[in-house]
Design goal:
By secondary structure, the protein is an alpha/beta fold. The chain folds into 3 domains: 269 residues, HUPs (Rossmann fold); 118 residues, Cysteine-tRNA ligase, C-terminal anti-codon recognition domain (Four Helix Bundle (Hemerythrin (Met), subunit A), Up-down Bundle); 51 residues, no CATH class. 44% of the residues lie in helices and 16% in strands. The strands form 5 sheets. A 5-stranded parallel β-sheet has the order 5-4-3-10-11, with helices on both faces. A 4-stranded antiparallel β-sheet has the order 6-7-8-9. A hairpin with a 4-residue loop joins strand 1 and strand 2. Helix 6 packs across helix 7. The longest helix has 19 residues. It is flat and about 75 Å long. The chain binds adenosine monophosphate (AMP) and zinc ion. Adenosine monophosphate binds next to helix 1 and strand 10.
Amino acid sequence: MENRFKFYNTLSRTVETVVPHEDGKIAMYTCGPTVYHFAHIGNLRSYMMEDVLEKALRYVGYDVKRVMNITDVGHLSSDADTGEDKMVKSAQKEHKTVMEIAKFYTDAFFDDCKKLNIKRPDVVEPATNCIPEFIHMVEVLLEKGYAYVAGGNVYFDTSKLENYYVFSTQTEDDMLVGVRDDVEEDTNKKNKNDFVLWFTKSKFEDQALKWDSPWGVGYPGWHIECSCIAMKYLGEYMDIHCGGVDNIFPHHTNEIAQSESYLGHKWCNYWFHVNHLNDKSGKMSKSKGNILTVSVLQEKGYDPMVYRLFCLQSHYRKPLEFSYDIMDNTAAAYKKLVKRIAGLKAEGEIEQEKFDEFKGKFLDAICNDLNTSMAITVLYDLLKADMNDATKLALVKDFDNVLSLNLTEAKNGAEKTVDAELESFVLAKIEERKEAKKAKDFAKADAIRDELMAKGIVIKDTREGVVWHLAEE
Ligand code: AMP
Ligand code: ZN
């Protein structure tokens, strides 16, 4: 098939046309979530843009196979090999086992993805399912002389590679700045950037999940899981590997180092990285705490589709700053857009020439480094264009295969939706206000009413009791 899809390949630092290993097929891998916490909307920006990439590739005609790991073991609190184990820390805090924590947050992650119309990858594999594969790769790396045992752990020897820093021309010291802040030097390492493939000795003796291995009882390093899981399901050659920009170093750099040393040839041709969602204080991150989740947005009355539109309106390679003002504008725009589409009548014949013209423009936008904001402009243009409603509706449905904004499904012009969580929150507040009134604490009762009002919820005292509704915009 004709290859016309272009995007910015971090490896070559240019916008390149994707030419897959096998004609018409794309083997794609996504670094999955660490499951010790809810995903924040920054993480979900990355997954959403990767979802758009996958859907755009399918839209242009590729048969895509996408694989994702679930990091349920061995992810430490820094990107280097030290720090506390986040899974263990979270399990202790929540009085659960590590596997219970992993299951809970894996399910929560896919619930959030569903709300945002992020398709589930074809294969989702938890790291804990692949221990024999990890051990095998470490054995081969040792045999080939790319790894060494020191202080009980197995390390990858980065000095064995001619070019370890594949993504950058930066110097070793530059690259270390971002990861060294809270990292103590591991004296077992021969070179600063060597990384652990298999741990048997670690700072935390309370590591919950451990497996037997030729080097003693222990657990895998973080990077090895992506290399092994990708190869398990996609074979020795992969076309596109995705992640957030913070994964470029050290995670993706280390994935390439060990995979190509193991295979003896180039592994993956195209690397797709999504820039960060920031808040006023900088990059949104799980370790900072106080994170914004999809549920929080819903509690505040936003349809998750509004967040999807918010992300699609900006380019995936630019940092994006979250603000409620922009969310409010986006909510109003989304409501208007869906209302307008709901008013289209599916009558008459499709005007094929017009259909093809706009489909061509849409294709140009998404094939040009996934220009989603241009794709949305094409959507607005077609609604204004001179053609019948049936053609417009057919185009909107067609574009929504990539945008996934529920453009033709939303009811009543995309009123703010009320979900069960919001409902129970409001009912609890109403109850609290009733108690305050009973105790003649009217200041508190008023404060509760104002708090709800600030969240866009109006309450009214009626003879039948308190009723509530979402505020009109
Ligand atoms: P984690 O669960 O921390 O491994 O992160 C999951 C994905 O989200 C990775 O691809 C990260 O690169 C990405 N990510 C982390 N923080 C952000 C952020 N603030 N904005 C966008 N993507 C992020
Ligand atoms: Zn990964």
